[in-house]
Batch of 2 targets.
Target 1
Amino acid sequence: MYTKMKIVFAIKYFNQHSRFFKNIACKYSTVSTNSVIKNNIYSILNPYVDFEDRLKGKALAESIKERNLNIDLDNVVSLWNQYKQVEETKSKLERSREEIVEKIKTFSDPSRHKSDIEGLKIKGKIIRKDLKNTSLIFSDLEQRLLPQILRLPNDLEHSMYSKDNKSYFTPNLKSDHHLDIANKLNLITYVSPFAYFLKNEAAEFELLLTSSFFNFFVKNGFVPFSNPDFSRSSVIEGCSVNPDLIFTLQRNSNETDQFYLNGTASVLPFCSFHSRHVSKNVPVKYVSQGRHYAPICSDLHDGLYTICQSNAVQIFIGFSDTKKADEFGSAVVLLSEIYKQMNLPFRVVKIHPSQLELAEALKVSFQVHSPFKNKYIEVGNLSFYGEYISKKLRMYYTDNEKFNFMSVISGTVLKVPPLLGTFLENKRTCKIPEGILAYT
């Protein structure tokens, strides 16, 4: 963690390179400049807004279309143009006011130039009034524009991982439901999606499997990382997380800054750590194990396949955007390697854009076949975010010459409950293969 001295140094370094940073503010977004809200001062982020650059190509419009999003891009562009025009007018008025002040200072004998000074003061009052009105219009446009820009999706990455779905091992055709198998073997007490208890070999399965996956990534160069279970509003907004996919901790309604429960196995704590942070050496590779929390998005309850809390393993990779294809491809190969050792029928699937989160440019899902349901169930995933999150949360790396935005890959590489469910349906036992146990 940064010491106070290092933080001060970093702020000075930012100020020296301020031309690299574009700021835009909004009172009603926690991803903005510092705001005073009902006597409470919040330290809030300044997102890097590259909206004009994104409008130069067709990628943004195509991303909105392929994701089937209800976003009127033309309306956002129109609002942006108004914002830029008012910003220019505001800047001209500020310059004119400064020019009048400087001109008044040039009069060495004010008593001999009373009429000239009085005329300049009257002109200054008019400019101040115009500037006040223009600033109000500018602030209103800012508050309306920024939330819409922050909700725009990431550009899609089609060419970076163009492989077809790849399957491993032949699926079994028939099986009982995993809860029925677990009851017969006295492995699980299932109460609801919010409460279930693993017993005997199932409890050992969870402990050994998370340990094996965690150690597997550590042996492949990932640094063990301990994450908090909670995240703040600014990080949630910066990662463009769908509020329906995360638990909100209820607080006073007049407080803007909320806390959310995500668990240690989430991309959010990693992004929180790197927010307003400069990494000197990339790539950075982290792995964390612990709880993962997520609300159920369906009324259908299906045992371990639809639960709200689980043990999981999460990885995070921060790197130069020029290495994105190599880094993502290597991560997919690495995760495929350990899943092969599970000796289960699984496949690697590229997720359709309509199923992606706004921040995801690409997502690959690792799915194991369920004989009872005769369908594949996700047990892990990898997402490519590019610089999308880094620009919002100010996540940088330096090559000793300049600051660059960090490109990000992250994923929940292991979700124990669905993997346990498919394992029971395929194997009717909780005995973990020796190849996996070698990493414990």
Note: The chain is about 40% helix and 20% strand.
Target 2
Amino acid sequence: MVIRALPGKAWLPFDQQANIVSASIWFNVALTIGASFVNYTDVLMLSLILYPIEELKFMQHVIKNFDNFKRKREISNNVDSSRSTFVDIIQRHQAIIEYVKVFNNILGFIMLVDFLQSSLHIAVLLKHVILVSFCNKQSLTIVISEFTHLMAMVVRPFFYYYCANEVMTCSHELITAICESNWYDRSRSVQLMVLLFTMKANRPLQFNIGPFGIMTLQSFINVMRIAYSYAMLLLTF
């Protein structure tokens, strides 16, 4: 009897070899749904992390071009228009601070789980790629396929931690934008608001990996280090 390969392995309530077409359709549909769920989840999470970056960059743009935005205010008094424009910046900044706080409270533990599972997943794939690469019986197509899978799993957390690192960078750049603006030419009340805003902006916005750290590029390097250690440990068995 010839055993025909299927896209995956799972228990089905019928003979898979006798019903090869039905089994293939079932596997393909299940794999498509699973892959789509993973992709949509990653798109959602990246969107949640990217949102503060766009808001922070917009605030930098407003601060650097303060006079242009001030003129768009429908207030004749220059002091009031300056004050109104900067109040809007402060409110946006406070909203982003609250957003990051809510993200950490709700999704901080999930990011910790993702940190651990990403390390383990990459480690298992790295071990498999090493074994496949040194196995003469494996075709080049299988080696390329496994290596591509490994690279995809490496790129995924890289985007997460790169975007989270950008949030910290953009929050620091608000101070630079303030220094590049002519805030010292404003009224005393606006100067006071700028001072208070600067003190608050000195505390960087950051996404947490649960209670154990923050999401930065250094965290991604830690993921790769842990994955390498796991892989070397698995190769000893």
Note: The mean pLDDT is 84.
